[in-house]
Specification:
The chain has 321 residues and is an alpha/beta fold. It has 10 helices and 14 strands.
C-alpha cells in the first residue's frame, strides 16, 4: 500500500461508555491523527456484544482507510474485540508465544499465580503486527486488510497512550499523509447562530480552499475551528486571522486555548486597572479562574467568598434589606 487517504474512523468498545462512563478517547486520537494528516470522519460507541463489534468493524473497514478500535482487549468474558475483529476480517486468531510469555512475566511480578484467562490477551489476528504495551498486559495490534489499516488499542487511558505512540510510527511507515494544522478562534458575546451568520462568507471561502471548518458552542464562548494542510497553513492563516479580527473585532477573545480570564487579564493590564472580586454562590470559582492565568498577580488584588447573609452584610456592607 503506497498511500492512505486522509480519512480515519474510530470505534470505542465498552458497554460502560453507553451507561455510566464518559468517553475521552476521541479527542486524544483525533489530535494525534491530525498530526499524521488523518482527519477523523466518524466515531462510534459500541457495547460489549461480539456481533455488534464485528458489524461496526466490518462496516468501518469497508469505507475508511484507517480504523482505530479502542477497548475490549483485556482478559475477561466481556473483552471481545479480538474475536470480533477476526470474524469481521475472516481471519484466524493465533496464540503469540512471545506475547504470552511477556504477559506471564509481567503478571507474576506482582501476583503469585496468573489466572488462565490472562492467556486470552496473547491471541493475535492472523497477519497482524503486535504493538507492545509498556503500561499493561493487553498488547495492541496493527494490520492491513484490503487497502485499509486496522488498529486495535487497549481502552485504559495510560495503556492507550503507551500503545498509540508506537502505532503512530506504524502509520507513518505505510503512508505519507501531510500533517494537518488546526486553528481555533474563541468568540464571546455571540450565540452560535450569530457567529455562523457573521462568518458565513468566510467559511464558504475556506471550504472552497479545502479548509475544514466547524463551529462549536460552549457557555459564553463560541469556537470557530479551521483545519488545513500544514504546507498551506502559513499562507492561509495570515488572511484567516485578519478576516476573523475584522468580522468579530472586540468579540474575538483569543485563540488556541486562550480563554475569557486571559482576555480579561490582558485588558486590565493594557488599561492599568486592577480587579477584586466578591463572590457568594460561586464559592470562589471566579477568583480561581482569574488566578489560573500566568501573570494575574499584575492585576488581581483580592477576593472574598461571602456565603452567608451575615457575611455579606458584615464584610461587604450589603444592606440586609
Amino acid at each position: 500500500m503506497k498511500n492512505l487517504p486522509k480519512e480515519a474512523e474510530l470505534i470505542h468498545v465498552g458497554s460502560e461508555l453507553l451507561s455510566h462512563k464518559i468517553n475521552s478517547h476521541t479527542i486524544l486520537l483525533a489530535q494525534a491523527l491530525a498530526g499524521q494528516g488523518l482527519a477523523v470522519r466518524r466515531a462510534a460507541l459500541v457495547a460489549d456484544r461480539i456481533e455488534d463489534v464485528r458489524f461496526a468493524i466490518e462496516q468501518a473497514v469497508s469505507r475508511s482507510s484507517l480504523v482505530v478500535v479502542t477497548g475490549g482487549l483485556g482478559p475477561t468474558f466481556d473483552d471481545l474485540t479480538r474475536e470480533a475483529a477476526a470474524k469481521a476480517l475472516g481471519r484466524r486468531l493465533i496464540i503469540d508465544r512471545v506475547v504470552e510469555a511477556g504477559i506471564r512475566e509481567r503478571y507474576l511480578r506482582y501476583h503469585p499465580v496468573m489466572p488462565a484467562n490472562n492467556r486470552k490477551q496473547a491471541f493475535v489476528i492472523e497477519g497482524a503486527e503486535v504493538i507492545h504495551n509498556d503500561a499493561g498486559t493487553a498488547p495492541g495490534q496493527m494490520l492491513i486488510h484490503k487497502g485499509s489499516m486496522l488498529l486495535l488499542l487497549p481502552g485504559p487511558p495510560r495503556e492507550l497512550e503507551a500503545t498509540l505512540r508506537k502505532a503512530l510510527s506504524g502509520i507513518q511507515r505505510f503512508s505519507g499523509p501531510e500533517p494537518l494544522t488546526t486553528k481555533v478562534f474563541h468568540i464571546a458575546g455571540n450565540t452560535e447562530s450569530e457567529a455562523e451568520e457573521k462568518a458565513r462568507a468566510l467559511v464558504a471561502q475556506c471550504q472552497k480552499a479545502g479548509v475544514q471548518t466547524t463551529i462549536l458552542a460552549a457557555p459564553y464562548v463560541i469556537d470557530l475551528v479551521f483545519q488545513m494542510p500544514q504546507s498551506r497553513a502559513q499562507k492561509l492563516l495570515v488572511n484567516l486571522e485578519k478576516r476573523i479580527a475584522e468580522i468579530f473585532q472586540d468579540d474575538l477573545v483569543g485563540c488556541d486555548g486562550e480563554n475569557l480570564p486571559a482576555a480579561l487579564g490582558a485588558l486590565l493590564l493594557a488599561r492599568g486597572q486592577g480587579l477584586s472580586l466578591a463572590e457568594s454562590c460561586t464559592g470562589g470559582l471566579c477568583a480561581s479562574k482569574v488566578t489560573d492565568v500566568v501573570g494575574s498577580s499584575g492585576y488581581f488584588d483580592r477576593g472574598f467568598v461571602a456565603y452567608s447573609n451575615a457575611a455579606k452584610s458584615d464584610e461587604l456592607g450589603v444592606p440586609k434589606s
